[in-house]
Design goal:
There is one protein chain. The protein is α+β, with helices and mostly antiparallel strands and 151 residues long. The protein has one domain (3-146): Gcn5-related N-acetyltransferase (GNAT) (Aminopeptidase, 3-Layer(aba) Sandwich). It is built from three helices and eight strands; from the N terminus they run βαβββαβαβββ. The chain has helices at residues 13-30, 88-103, 118-122, and strands at 3-7, 46-52, 55-63, 72-79, 108-114, 127-128, 133-135, 138-146. Strands 1, 2, 3, 4, 5, 6, 7 and 8 form an eight-stranded mixed beta sheet that branches. β3 and β4 form a beta hairpin. It is globular. It comes from Fictibacillus solisalsi. GO terms for molecular function: acyltransferase activity, transferring groups other than amino-acyl groups. Pfam families: Acetyltransf_10. InterPro entries: Acyl_CoA_acyltransferase, GNAT_dom. This is ElaA protein.
């Protein structure tokens, strides 16, 4: 499976459309959570994804420090339903972490993870730094990954 990493301006209109379609399908429709999915942060982000037959199979966005938090961040992590359970989420997240720490030379990554995925994120070295709180009707926790800490 080949992975692509692009800035917003490098995305074709078809790629952007596919990314937004899948994010909306999962975060708004599947999770029954009406919220402003297109939040303006895509313009300053890197977009990491893989496609199968022209459709987004897995995706996440990498937000440089200062876009969402003072630290760099990963967000909008998705794997399309048909491709779940095949290890794509692990590969996607590891590629996002590696790019952020090694290419962007960031020391810390902050995420706002859905609470049910806390164990998954902690398996990559993220540590929970908040109590569980509700965000758009879904329990979340804030987590941090420190470069070279327990890795």
């Amino acid at each position: 499976m080949s992975w692509k990493l692009k800035t917003f301006d490098e995305l074709t209109t078809r790629e952007l459309y596919s990314i937004l379609k899948e994010r909306t399908e999962i975060f708004v429709v599947e999770q029954n959570c009406p919220y402003l999915e297109v939040d303006g942060k895509d313009l300053s982000s890197y977009h990491l994804y893989t496609e199968v037959d022209g459709e987004i199979a897995a995706y996440l966005r990498i937000l440089p420090a200062g876009v969402s938090y003072e630290q760099a961040s990963l967000g909008r992590v998705i794997v399309k339903k048909e491709y779940r359970g095949q290890g794509l989420a692990q590969e996607l997240l590891q590629r996002g972490i590696d790019f952020t720490l090694n290419e962007l030379n960031e020391d810390t990554i902050k995420i706002q993870g859905q609470h049910y995925l806390e164990k998954f994120y902690s398996s990559f070295g993220f540590q929970t730094i908040s109590d569980v709180y509700m965000e758009d009707g879904i329990p979340h926790v804030d987590m941090l990954l420190q470069k070279n800490a327990n890795r």
